[in-house]
């Protein structure tokens, strides 16, 4: 473990000194010793490899197969790309922490990681909403599907998801830099999150609390409401179908997306509730945060690979060619 360095003043203001730490200390998983952390690094490496290979395979298959250049698969490629980047932002740093025990992360690097985690999560939420809209149009208005979800429209939706994620979360590093950090500088996670960095400040955090709550409600909150409303309309349309086989076939096209929504939103809602209603950061906080960030990039390509016939057959074709 490296010897801790002293705090350095970031800038001087008329009323005093605004103090920024040279680094934060990442705890990993509270209550676990270095040996346990070391052995946890190996399954984490496997998860990262699975997330990288799985999401990369989905993106490349959709890119190569021309008949997969349809809205549903293009949105899936956006989801896999987001998961690929998100896992690369979090997992390698966690593996390094668990293997080497080096807890230090520079102040600006921590803010950069925090921004990317939150911005990419907002992008993933937007893509899940777009996929719900895709299923709504396909099931409720099948005759209008081709005219509503055209190639340019899909591209605009993807650009809007990217822009919204970066624009709304870009202020976070700057409003964290306006705070002084004269308490302990231990982040009780394996990565940097806005709520945890904010709690380390010894100055007024009202702006951070209000803005953080605003973007959570206006992004994830609104997205989840629209996704829920879409599925209410989808369920109503499915139940109105005269044939039970047609109803099952229609709803079966939504299973993969429903799994992705549940894997993303259930830990997110749990993490938000725990952060705002409980006291000091506990093991429950850490576990919920790890599930929220680590599980979707691993699970999504497995679910979509298993449930999507075109992707599954392409993967089997690739392995059969290598075997022969």
Summarize this entry quickly:
The chain crosses the membrane at residues 12-32, 38-61, 73-91, 111-133, 154-176, 209-234, 255-277, 283-304. The chain is mostly helical and 324 residues long.
Structural description of this entry:
It is a multi-pass membrane protein. GO terms for molecular function: G protein-coupled receptor activity; olfactory receptor activity. One of its GO terms (cellular component) is plasma membrane. Pfam families: 7tm_4. The protein has 324 residues and is mainly alpha-helical. The protein has one domain (23-307): Rhodopsin 7-helix transmembrane proteins (Rhopdopsin 7-helix transmembrane proteins, Up-down Bundle), CATH 1.20.1070.10. 73% of the residues lie in helices and 6% in strands. It has helices at residues 34-64, 71-100, 107-140, 145-148, 151-169, 171-177, 194-199, 206-239, 244-252, 255-277, 283-307, 309-323, and strands spanning 8-13, 16-20, 23-26, 104-106, 186-187. It has a three-stranded mixed beta sheet. α2 (71-100) packs antiparallel against α3 (107-140) and α3 (107-140) crosses α10.
